[in-house]
Amino acid sequence: MDAFSLDQNQILTFFAVLVRFATLVAVLPWIGDRVVPTPVKVMLALTLSGMLYPMLESTGRVDPARAEVWGATAAGIIGVTALEALFGLALGFVARMVFIAVETGGNLAGTYMGFSMASMYDPHQESQTQVVAQVHTTLAMLIFLALDGHHLMLQAALDSYSIVGVGGAGFGQAFADRLITLSSETLKIGLQMAAPMAVALFAINVVYGVMSKAMPQLNVLILSFSVSALVGLAVMLMSLPEFHSTTGWLMARMGEEMNAMMSVLGKG
User: Pick from 112, 123, 104: which is nearest to 33 by CA?
Assistant: First the structure.
């Protein structure tokens, strides 16, 4: 693409494409993490937009002629830019929800194991998180890369122009309902992933409750830390195959959820 041969409508359309890709890159898993420098994200968005714009224009997914309408006024340009930014944020949020579910399950499991007092600083989230959540998130990221999840997200971003054109996103009641449903499903999956740990450690606590009644001189509080951690690590090891299959299922659903969100936004 020769930037010097573009007319005004093409420049405005390219800018709209850049805004969508830039906001998407800023919130996508792995690529949009805070440890990735901002200049790298900016260059990645520029590179993707520069490579994909000629194909989008040649296939008719974007029409520079429409920029004569929305690009005629400052209000039109601001409105389309805002819609493209919100669309990119919504699409990236759907992809990130998979990792939020994994992190929620890991934080709950770590709390059950008694690791909440040993939180660590997670540079990816720039906040305190537990060791179990970091392990689960790292494993999920490796599975994500092994399944070419980053290619899936980029393909969804490219296909989004076939469903929602430039400035064509509609944020109505259907979008709010879909967002609430997705958030509730994320919380439910996180609870389900932490359920084996909760059941195992609940049984341990019941045993300790009986022992404390039978032997009041026994220091249950001190013993429970080591036993809960040991049992928790054993449960984590035994549940690794299930964690792998569940995470793979979530990665497979990621594309479906992104397409569903695009359909909702396309209908307005």
Answer: 123
Show Cβ contacts of residue 16 under 8 Å, excluding neighbours closer than 6 positions. 62, 67, 80, 81, 84, 166, 167
Residue with the two structure tokens 């200049």: 39
Q: Which residues pair with 122 in a beta bridge?
A: 127
Partners of 127 in beta bridges:
122
Q: How far is CA 68 from CA 134, 166, 169, 185, in A?
A: 49, 13, 18, 42
pLDDT tier for residue 170 given thresholds of 50, 70 and 90:
confident
Say how far residue 98 (Cα) sits from the centre of its chain.
5
Q: Is 142 helix (H, G, I), strand (E, B) or coil?
A: helix
- For the stretch 96-143, pLDDT in tens is 888 888 888 888 888 877 776 666 555 555 556 677 888 888 888 888
Which amino acid belongs to residue 225? F
pLDDT digits (tens, 9 = 90+) for 48-78: 888 888 888 888 888 888 888 888 888 888 8
Does the CA dihedral 258-41-123-30 come out positive or negative?
positive
Burial class (CB in 10 A: 0-12, 13-18, 19+), 231: middle
Q: Distance between CA 90 and CA 263 in Å, rounded?
A: 12
